[in-house]
Specification:
Structural class: alpha/beta
Number of strands: 13
CATH topology of one domain: Aspartate Aminotransferase, domain 1
Distance between the termini: 52 Å
Order of helices and strands: HEHEEHEHEHEEEEEHHHHHHHEHEHEH
Strand content: 5-15%
Strand order of the largest sheet: 1-10-9-6-5-2-4
Radius of gyration: 20 Å
CATH architecture of one domain: Alpha-Beta Complex
CATH class of one domain: Alpha Beta
Number of helices: 15
Length: about 375
Amino acid sequence: MHLQDKYTELLRNYIGDKGTIYFYWKGRVALYALLKSMGIGEEDEVILPAFTCVVVSNAILYLGAKPVYIDIDSDSYNTSLQNIQKLVTPKTKIIICQNTFGLSCDIDLIVNYARSNNIYTIEDCTHGFGGNYNNKPNGTWCDASFYSTQWNKPFSTGIGGIALLNNMQFQNNLEIINKQLLKPSFKEEKMLRALLFTRKNIITPSNYWMLLKLYRWLSKNKLVIGSSGGDEITGTNMPSDFFKATSKTQIKEGIKSIELFPILLKLRKENATIYSEVLKANGKKYVGEKYRANHSFLKYPILVKNREQFIAKAETAQIELGEWFCSPLHPVLENELYKWGMKATNFPVALHISRHIVNLPTDTNNIEKVKKFILDTIVDIL
């Protein structure tokens, strides 16, 4: 069996047997291809949460369309149909339904509303692979969906993206567009293999923070392959090498990673339950019971009084803490958001959460260590 066919078959265990799967260099490339296949262009509007990654907005802006941001719910960290309805105009062409930290929410209501108003939907499953919403796999609700297999995603290939096209009226367009994909260079594949080796064999809790800071600096300055190069987080012009296909290295790594995925998914849910119990017992904000069945817990979000001080304590305690989303358009600074057509004060819930949120690791095998850290810093948690 061809490697890509084997990879596709393994993905089908979690995505289901409907729709067509396509592979890309990054998840944002998959989103861009889907938007383009749906004919998105000048003056079109795309609704998306004001609590996301800047690369999602960029995929819209690269096509000349307008991102229309919407505030989120403080409990689910997702948006709601009620909020969306307020912003729909005759120019609205697509609604992006985001799965945040592993949770889908209201997606059935949003999809039904969109279909009745001739609006297409794309599910942002960059956090949601392997999860379900009301017993239906994440990614199968909308006209299309895109997934990420980058660092710290449900399963990782270093970097990588997947599209699932469910509305087959766009298949011909998408396949024509995909013919324009650039091929990763030998240097890029070699660098990716080196980064994967480092991640698996060199990073430890004791050097995690040091190497993370180094990697982010190198990535920002385009000295290594990273989640976001300098061009993608400083402006809205599409990099010349953006539209890139997947590589054999990513396919091979995907096959190895996804075979271990069931163990990882089980661990995440078990650890999340422990976090919820500890936070609830101490009167702190936790992920409510009504969300548990639909939550795959890629990350466990908590709010803290002073994020900088809390992160410093985590670094000292050697806790691998995450920082999604430290801005309504992560990782753009608040005073730079205007470049992406956003005024943060228009989204008070997203702004407040982005100023206070950190993410507990759910893939840890040392849950007692993290639990102790939570209890030691409980006065710092909201």
